[in-house]
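This part of the workshop introduces the protein records we will be handling. An example says more than a description, so a record of this kind follows.
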Amino acid sequence: MVQTFNDIMSSIKNCVLAMVSVFGISITGVGVYHGISSDEISLDEIKVPAQFEEQGYRSDITTIRILDEIKKLQNSNGSAKEKVSFFGSSGNNQLQTSNLQLGGTGVDVKAIQSYIRDSLGMVTAKVSGEITARKDGDDIEYHVKIRKTPENSILVDEKIKGNVEYVIRKTSLKLLESTDPHIAAASYWAMNDEVNALRMIDVVLANDISSDDKFSLNLRAYIHITNKRLEDAQADIDRLSKIAPDFIPLLSSKSWIARERGNFEESLKLSDEQIRRAPEKWWGHQARAQSLQGLKRNEEAQQEYLKVMEMRPSVPGPYLNASAFFVANSDIAQAAEVLRIGVSKFSQNPMLSLTYADVLQRQKMFAYSESLYRSYLNHPKFKIYALIGIGELLASQQKETELKAHKDTLRQYLKDYPLSPSDTKILGKRLDALLIG
């Protein structure tokens, strides 16, 4: 009886797949592919308070903005891990494709998705929630609660103060923490937030999803190498080598730690092995560029940096890396050109804009440089970068009276908001040169 049932279900599945191939594969293919390629999270419209709606952020718009932010985070962190698929309600292209019904054929793509997903053991979690608001003195405090059904488990329970866009970005990060902690860790690290990156790595290594461990061990090795904690990095590399010896991104860690130890030939050998095993990925080319730079083979290194820019057109990181290479080789004009292109594509990326301002300052384009710095004077995270840049501009132009007053402002700001460890690594030398000089 069981065998007969299995035979019937197998026939139905084959029939469904045949229908897909016969009726409009160009339309249904996208919907079915999204349905079976990875586990998914269906996000219903998030209910919002009047304060959101007054600014044009209705429930549907807010939900789409959260999905957009999650997509940006997933695309920008560079992790090799397959991302959890999010899709939402009205306005989201992926769901619109999923709900298509082919006119005249009677083929319901959503039904096909559901059947194939069930037959392959895929999991779709349904997520819903609301944002409420209350006055807290002169501020508004938003309370974000998002839960997963049917078990009604809480994914996000966060109280946030700030403007609507800040609440959306914070909500997106918190939702990513709950649903894909490794990608959250990688996203935090991409934002230079090492503390939260390590926190989320601990979550991954402590949970019962062992398939994510290799990604987070590799990321933690990266973080240790960045901080010159080479023994800790080697311990993670050794542990990863035991549990996933064929994990291709492991070669990135091995290549990087070899460079840190000055063994650029070994690093180059490992990067070439990455390219051989995964020619379509950018990681090997990035490692090769840095290895060649260490070997002073700068013409070859330049081609690799430009290759990574070509392979990763949708993220800002390659523009920053290539510009740093050109600055290190005193090719300021080429660095400025790379950053000009990067800023034109990612005008809202603070590090690209501020790095561009630094390079323009070296080209003595003081007015344009100052305008870029000043655009970040009200940014909670990047104000210190802007203050240092403006101070350097004043010093370059020998405006001693203005510089003295600016240094006082800078010292007071640092007293109120001490540098984080990650900012100290990046800005420490510039800050000392400015304040002591």
